[in-house]
Amino acid sequence: MEEKIQDLLEEEIKSEIRSLTSLSPGSKEKSTAIEDLSKLYRLKIEDTKAELDSYEKQDQIDSRILEQRLKREQLSEQVKDRYFKLGIAAAEIILPMIFYAIWMKRGFKFEETGTYTSTTFKGLFNRFKPTKK
Description:
The chain is an all-alpha fold and about 130 residues long. It has a domain at about 1-90. Helix content is about 85%, strand content about 0%. The protein contains three helices and no strands. It has helices at about 1-20, 30-110, 120-125. The mean pLDDT is about 80.
């Protein structure tokens, strides 16, 4: 419907301009036609401004929606990143403990006599405490 009103308004302006050429210069009819034409043209300008304002508002709404969607995606990525870092931190603690437990069990099985005679197990025994170096 909006398109039809704009088209009709443009057609009316064109017909008014065409009718101006047939009127004699300085006549009262020509001045009235010019006033009518200026009113129509102001109406067209106001309609165009209103349309541009509505497009601008729609663009602002679209940009807000896009910004909110982007924030949600960033938040989702941050949550995934936190869980990944938490998993890595847990693996940094658990894997060395498992490694030390396996080697201690093997070492104790090897050293059933109660003394640490092998140099391999003596060297590993000093490193069984999970500390950063």
